[in-house]
Every structure is written in structure tokens, then in C-alpha cells.
């Protein structure tokens, strides 16, 4: 389910205010400009602006336009209950549904939401954190950037958690007692790998994010399942990449890895549906037929997976956002810190084909198969 259109406009305006693009007294883009920018109807734009007026972000002056309101830059009123939310993206991939789950549940529990978007950049994350803290929220739900890396912002989060309720979403840092609402990617990767094995694949590769803790958890589930089934865990079958890697560099790395050993894998476990989409394009470019020459399985079961016909592990999306909202309010009201991992289910499509083989042999650590 996609987020309501008005919510996309609403959260974009709030994000621009939080970043300082529009400050107190500034005029925001007109209805016509917003209609052109988003491609939405005037009714949708007006609904978004009306919500922001009610929340104290905007003031509409008849015959003049709509302006950033004093209350939106001067901090949240003491009568309001507000939760700050920091996410990597806004209207991209699975994020609209996560935002819908958070905001809907917060509203039901009597809280408003102040949203900051980092675009997965640490300097922006620090700026958004500082801006949110100035508004003195009751608590914060945060999706930190590069969770597998020793980031300095980790200490900022620890200091914040000592003063107000804080919850991580979509993964957190090791070595902190900050609770997390996340998907159980270890178990999800185990399920994905077991499915590939059941379809006759014995040489399984992976393309995973090295700077994101979720990539490491997916590798843990993959390698554990291969070992459990007495199948090889081959380093040549795994390509690690970073979140901010340019597409051209990723394509070059993938091609090099593919012809250096990754091509021995009959199936690939991809970090997510977006990664799988890029890999499919690269494979076609090197005259390899996706799904036929190499099976592909991924994570998140997004609209991208539906369009491409990808077999993918589900992501709770709206339910995850809702659960995060419930956990932060529980922490605000009772001080109880609770984490939760949500389960994934396998959705099969046409991207994994069945293989059968009569024998195999090992040459210098590589598995070769004879097919029937």
C-alpha cells in the first residue's frame, strides 16, 4: 500500500522546514508550484497544507500565500505531544508505507510527528538530530546511517538516549542499549537460502551492503544455512558494496566479481529489491539472462519486486512503522525500553528456477555440477 498522496507533500514540506530551506516567515511554494512538482491535484495539495496549518507549521494569509509559522521554528508547544522521526528517505521504495504506519499510530495515540530526512548522509543526519533536539520532542524514532560502521553519530545517539526516549528503526548500532524495531533478517536470509537449496542450488552467491548492519545479518543467515546443509561458503561468491557507491563503480565491481568467480554461483541473494533491479540490468548488459542463467532472490517484497517478478522476502513496512510508534510511546509513558523483530515471509515469483544435478566434484575448492 502506498502512502496517501497528501502525506508525501506534507512530509516534504516539513522536511524542508526542518532542514532550514524555509525558515520562520518564509513563503513556501504556491499551490500551483506544488501541483507541478508532485503531479498531484489541488485538493491533495490543499489537504497537506491544511494539516500543516493545524499542526502549527504553516500560516495561510489570504491573498498573499502560505508562510512558515512562528510555532514551527520556535519549538513544539508544551501542550503538544510530539515524536521526532528520522528516516533515510521520504517518497522512495518502502519508506512511504513506513511513514504511514508511524504517523497513523502516533495520531491514534495523541501524538504529532516531526519528520527529518537524511538521504543516508551522516552530515545531514547530525544536522537533523540537532534540529529535532531544539524542538524538545517527547521522544525520537531514528533510522541511523551506516550502522555497520564506527560512526561518530553513534555517541550522539547514546547521549540523546540518556535524556529522552529513543528508538532505532530498521537496525541500530552494536554496543548500545538503545532498543530497535526491525526485521529479523537473519531468519529471513535462512528462509531464502533454504528455498534456493530446495530448488536445487548448491552454489549460492550474494551481493550485500558492507556498511549496513542488515547486510551483515543477511550474510549470517546465508552462511549459517549453507554450513548447516554442508554446502561451501565461498568468499568468491560474495560481493560487498557500500550504500553511497556510484552506480558506475558498482557495475564495474559487479562485472569484475562476476567473471572472477561469482559466475560459478547458480543463484544470487541480493541485499534488497533495488539492488536486484540494478544487477538484472548489469547481467543483461553482459549477455547473461537473469532468472534463466542465474536465479535471483531478494528482500523487501516492494513494488519493484512485483514489477520485475522477483522472488523476495517480505518487509513489514506499515506494520513496522506502527510497531515503532507503539514502542516509543510505551517508552515515553512508562520508561520501559522494548525491542521487537518482525518476521518475513517468502513470496515466490519467476526469478528462481529449479535445478537438478546427478553429481558434483570439487576442483581447487570450487564446486562443479553435472546437470540432468
Give a quick rundown of the structure.
This protein has helices spanning 5-19, 31-38, 42-54, 70-73, 95-108, 122-134, 153-161, 185-198, 213-228, 247-259, 273-285, 303-308, 318-334, and strands at residues 58-61, 65-68, 82-87, 112-117, 139-142, 166-169, 180-183, 204-209, 238-241, 267-270, 295-300, 311-314, 340-342, 346-347, 357-363, 366-371. With 372 residues, it is α/β, with parallel strands linked by helices. Among the domains are: 1-72, Arc Repressor Mutant, subunit A (Orthogonal Bundle); 185-314 and 347-356, Response regulator (Rossmann fold, 3-Layer(aba) Sandwich), CATH 3.40.50.
Characterise this structure:
The radius of gyration is 23 Å and the shape is globular. It has 372 residues and is of the alpha/beta class. The C terminus is likely disordered. Helix 5 packs parallel to helix 13. It has 13 helices and 16 strands.
Q: On the 0-100 scale, what is the average pLDDT? A: 89
Helix-strand pattern: HHHEEHEHEHEHEEHEHEHEHEHEHEEEE
- Name the helicity range: 40-55%
The CATH homologous superfamily name of the domain at 185-314 and 347-356 equals: Response regulator
CATH class of the domain at 185-314 and 347-356: Alpha Beta
| Low-confidence runs | 72-78, 358-372
Descriptive terms for the model:
single chain; alpha/beta; Rossmann fold; 6-stranded parallel sheet; 6-stranded mixed sheet; 13 helices; 20% strand
